[in-house]
Structure formats: C-alpha cells, structure tokens
Amino acid sequence: MVNITLAIPDSLHAKLKSRSEIRWSEVMRQMLQRKIEQLDEVDKILEKSKFTQKDVEIIGRKVEEK
C-alpha cells in the first residue's frame, strides 16, 4: 500500500485530533474511492458523447450565466 501526505490547515488538524475515535485514514480511503468511481462513470458517459469541446464550452458558459 502507498502512503499519501496531505497539507491541511492547523485548525482542521485540531478538529481531526479532537475526534480521535475516527480512523481518518479509512475515511480518506473511502472518499478517494468514491471520487474515482464517480470519475470513472463520467469517463464512460463521455466516451459515448458526441459533444465537441466547443459544445461543452458553450453549455458551460450558459450554465455560468444562470
């Protein structure tokens, strides 16, 4: 297994330490796994998409306007 080091603000570190009953490494593993699964799903959808990069940019601008 690989180790990952994160830089977090001191205030967050203090809050994490106050919850010593929680295995934060396990929480992070689960969060990372969920994010990867979500990105994999997006990739599957995009593989089938007929949108061009220009189409995506136009839609993105319209969404930002609202």
Helices and strands in order, then pairings?
Layout: H1 10-18, H2 24-48, H3 53-65
| Largest β sheet strand count, sense and barrel closure | none
| Count of distinct structural domains | 1
Strand content: under 5%
Distance between the termini: 44 Å
Q: Could you list the spans in which at least 5 consecutive residues all have pLDDT below 50?
A: none
| Helix amount | over 70%
Report the strand count: 0
What can you tell me about this protein's structure?
- The protein has one domain (10-65).
- The model has no long low-confidence stretch (mean pLDDT 93).
- The longest helix has 25 residues, at 24-48.
- The protein is built from three helices and no strands.
- The N and C termini lie far apart (44 Å).
- Helix content is 71%, strand content 0%.
- It is mainly α and 66 residues long.
Give me a quick take on this structure.
With 66 residues, the protein is mainly α. 71% of the residues lie in helices and 0% in strands. The mean pLDDT is 93.
Question: What keywords describe this structure?
Answer:
3 helices; elongated; single chain; mainly alpha; 66 residues
